[in-house]
Amino acid sequence: MSTQPDDVLLEVKGLRTHFTTDTGEVRAVNGADLTLRRGRTLCVVGESGCGKSVTARSILQLVERPGRVVGGQVLLHRRGPGGAAETVDLAALGPRDRRIRQVRGRDIAMVFQEPMASLSLVHRVGNQIGEAIRVHNRVSRAEARRRSVELLGRVGIPAPERIVDAYPFQLSGGMRQRVMIAMALSCEPELLIADEPTTALDVTTQAQILDLLADLQDSRGMAMLFITHDMGVVAEIADDVAVMYLGSVVEQGAVDGVFHAPRHPYTRALLESVPRMGAPRRERLPAIRGSVPDPAHQPSGCVFRDRCDHAMPGRCDTTVPPPVSLADGRRVRCLLYGGDAPAGHADPADPAHQFRPDPAGASARRADEEAADAD
Amino acid sequence: MRALVIRRLLYMVPTLFAISLVAFLVIQLPPGNYLATYIAELSARGASVERAQILALEERYGLNEPLHVQYLRWIGGILLNGDFGMSFAYQRPVADLIWDRIGLTVALALATMLVSWVIAFPIGVYSAVRQHSVGDYAATFVGFLGLATPNFMLALVFVWVSYRFFGESAGGIVSPEFADSAWNLGRVLDVVSNLWAPVLIIGAAGTAVLIRVLRANLLDELRKPYVTAARAKGLPEWRVILKYPVRMAISPFISTIGWILPTLVGGEVMVSIVLSLDTTGPLLLEALQSQDMYLAGSFILVLGALTLVGTLLSDLLLAWWDPRIRHAQTEEASA
Question: What is the second-level CATH architecture of the domain A1-107+190-275?
Fold first, then answer.
């Protein structure tokens, strides 16, 4: 991993999470790639069912049966004991492995979509936060409680000494989500995964929670992986954005670049379907034609080709597009930018020649495997 | 919480009154009374009964008085003197007859409940956590067997097996050699050693129900987001499961306290008869058949009161166990 810059915290490479059902194997995540840098916020966007939540859960091995992580790597570059850098492949650990449990909550913490359902209603707030502290730190109950109160104060809960003894059902939705955030921050994680943390909240509360998360992320220099389907949220908090479609990341890059010059046809279509202030009123918003294919019966080649205006017959239906690196660290999975020529022999006439091909070469190998899989 | 307890205790007073009234009236419902049955028996044996003798008996038992007077005399005796009246058939005070049997029934109910908890808890949790495993299927199979087999059938099989293969006549709670001795360590051990079979037989169906309920509840709970959230903290799996979903799924165990006694009294008469257990069931049945009204009425009254206490206990325990119930009831009380 010596080629990786220092500030890379987590790399997801070719992650595959499958669900075994009676009707067949559903590939919820089918070769997803993500790169998270320290201190930055990466937003993962996509339609319902594109596998963004499952990707987030796969990182911590939290996918429930019948789902399981079947391939790929999740490389966490953390400072090990003594400050030396070490790399752990989380995808290689079992869901009940002691090593993944040490990562959960300590290196990587998670905030979930529904604060009502994600907190236990019959345990006091202080108990649930204190427990998160005591799993990873040898501290007394009194010390855990003191820290819980402090955390509750830091996430903007009024009268934290009182709320620490409250039950979650006595709190409002926004307060509950603050409690979840306090719990996630309890062990000072390097990465916070937020899985649609504002979807279940009303608009005012959404804005407050977003501000809080952006604040905390800034003041602690932690990285954040933020799952959402709301483009407004992305514009507000993201440094980088990754667009997912049907289990794979079709485009990743800095948020300004992706929003202003989307490369992948799907990203373009997605951005065009977002209503804009000041846009002509009576015009219908463009919608992406067709619908998302059933993940159990994915088309061959590029999974977006049935809905794509730029589909190239003979190429898009035979080759699974590998990730192609463009300028500014942008990565796109689309044959318009190359990727179907044999690795290392890019045709100069191909539009891809102006962009650096994927340096690792691993992605080309993976593309071949995937093409074989798809057949 | 204290207000809740007081309120629930107050509610018990009218309920107890209603139970006593119903217990008394139900016994009066069938035509005739103990004397009629008694006289019919005497005549059947060819003995003649004189009119004067019948009147004397009626006078003695107070049967010639109107219903409400009989009721008030009976309930007044209980409340003021703890006097439950006379049993016609045994010619002894009811109080002498019922307490031993009620004590045994309650002991049996408690033992059955504890044993079913101890058996059902690990099996139920295992079967939910390892759903579709061999162990789960085995537990389900045995559970359905337990559910489908009438308890008296199990009792009969047990008696047959212990006689046929071990040459012992099973049955009874106190072995013959201790029958007349006072309570000492030997007698206690003897009772315990005789109690396990009835407890298992009577508890079979209830245990199977608890396993099924716990498994179903826990399966629902295991899929809830708070379980994933607890895992995301880095807790060990067994702690995640025992602290969160099991806690939510186990309320039915507490509810058993409320219904175990009535089930036992109503449902296990056959088992008690087969295993010759001196519980309330057989004597209550006998008392009802011979219209021994004070005996039957007192049984029903005391068992009803005990059931109320059981329900109260289980409700209070549930409120202690689940803060949502506690807070809902406190709010309701203050509203």
Answer: 3-Layer(aba) Sandwich (3.40)
